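Subgroup meeting minutes
Present: P.N., E.W., G.H.
Scribe: E.W.

1. P.N. recapped why we're keeping a running log of single-chain structure predictions: easier to compare across weeks, and new members can see raw inputs and outputs side by side.
2. G.H. added today's entry (672 aa).
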Amino acid sequence: MTHHAADSASPSFARFDGWWRITPWLMFLAALAARFAYVSVYAGSLPYWDQWDGEADRLLLPWLNGTWHWMDLFSPHNEHRIALTRLLTLALFELNHHQWDNLVEAYACAGVFAAMEALLYARLCRGLPHLSQRLGLLVFMTVLAALPFAWENIASGFQSAFYFMALVAIAMQSVAAFGKGSGRDIGLLLAFGIMSLFTMASGLIACLAVIVVVVVRNRSQKPASAYFAPCVFVCMALIALVGLVFTPAIPYHESLKAHGLAEHVRSLLINLAWPWQPSTSRRWWLLMVVLWLPTLVWIVRVLRGRNLCPADAFAAGMLTWVGLQFLAIAHSRGHDMSALSSRYMDIPAMAMALNAYLALVQLATTNKRLVSWTIATLFFAATLAGLHRRQGSDMSSLVQRHALTVNETRHVRDYLATGNPVVLQQPPLYIPYPDATRLQSLLDNLTIRAMLPRLTHQDYYSTQGLGWLSIVAMKWQAPFARSSNYPPTSANALQQTFSSLALHPSCELEPAVTVLVPRAAPVPIPASQLAFLPNDESDRTPLILNAGQTAFGSIHAPRAGRIVAFEVVVGTYFNTSNGSLQLTLCKGRQCASGSGDLQTSLDNSLFMIAVTPTLDVSAGDDLTYRLSKDGGSVGVALWLYPSVAGGPQKISLEDGQTFGGQTAKFALSYAK
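Output recorded in log:
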């Protein structure tokens, strides 16, 4: 067999040595740009879920109160001891002038992710003898980095622990594979091994993977010291044992663990089959084999005596790390597992990068070119097809996470403005913490309240509801993504804010400004903007429209102009509503109509229906509307709010039901 010494000083290697030194930086920039783009559009400033306990209550509050101790870095968070994530949080908190902002953390998390991708790519490149192979791996890993399958880790900066764990593991395998086997390397492995215990609970797995690297490496290269291998074995085993002993048991997580051999095996197979969704078909089993075919063939060739370079030893260690991570996930979260959670998906993505490396290596290290090309072609085709197949659902999940963040921010802001605990009594995922009472106690803490993102502060909130900005992002294989900012508003401030803007509403390629104006308010509405009809947002109930049902009522035109579109806030059951919503809007006998495909809607957001022909109205004109659900298997909810003076007073169904004192939230879009 051929020994592919890409690290050797061969003429062919020297020709592109300068190129390969650039490509890891290209990998870093590509991964960073992709994550920054997602964070910019879909992440939010409001901290979420575990951040309230893990950061606000147990880290930042003691830090500000002067009760924090450096040993608190190593205290458990569930099963984990996330010292590196806590250090990052404290650094960002200080750099951000004591503002606790998830958006800042998400950008930093993207940087850690990009560093992980670049380091993994750089290590693997040392085993690829041709520039074309390195560029091929660069393209493949860039595709992996650019897709939003790990949307939970994109949206939450607290998830940096996953990337710190992977980064430390890559560093450890690098030292074991590419080092000289000296006492210095033993010291580095010892330091990184201890560090791995303070990334996540499964960080200790990196120590076990190092043992595999040393065993594989000793087949072809003896270390500088005869004591290297025994010392590494003992140190790594002891560190892993200490980490295992000191991993806390969480009683309420016991129900998440796999029960019995069958659940363990099924959960493991779900990990191995990523990016394909679980199935019972024969095709799923075949695809799983194809995804791991490069590894299987490589193992066979190694057992038959193939010489190994340091990059091969590194790949063996990382494959061991990935495999043990799969076992850990299958055991700890395998009960009734039907699909892999997005927070874990960066691990199988790394596995696919390793398989891509092995597929490319075998193209250059075997005389059986046809077999190697067939294996590589099947692997890349199966992987890319699986990624393409799941891309739409992953993107929808990220959009949905953003929509929930908008609602969570609104409810937290409302509570800070009113102090009414009823505001926090919301359905699951509509507030940023699972327990409303616990969230209220945290928000009532003045120190925590002072460090919340500026977006949630009372001085950024208009209790009269005079206005907000609604930024509409470009549509990309998903419904409109809207994020909201609530600046202090007044008649003068509103004029100053929008005097220099020339933006168009609901445009797929341009931002849109939405101005909320109560009826008869002395605030000018900029041309070509949305005018909202007033309502009370203190409470809401859903009015469900199924196929064939119609809701109707009347409204008053809030201003003169030409109406080009009608908008209403809808609930779409986590973006699953289908069919269409038909509209008829009339001023006397003059009517306009329109239709909107509900599959383009965003849950709990405005749904726009363009009308034809346009409708010219004067301020205060009586308008009637009819909204009919046409087709589709999943209904749509019109959110009803308490009516206020000057706004719509009721809404009715054709079957005779009338909802007095309630109204949907409507907006009219005017032409210039």
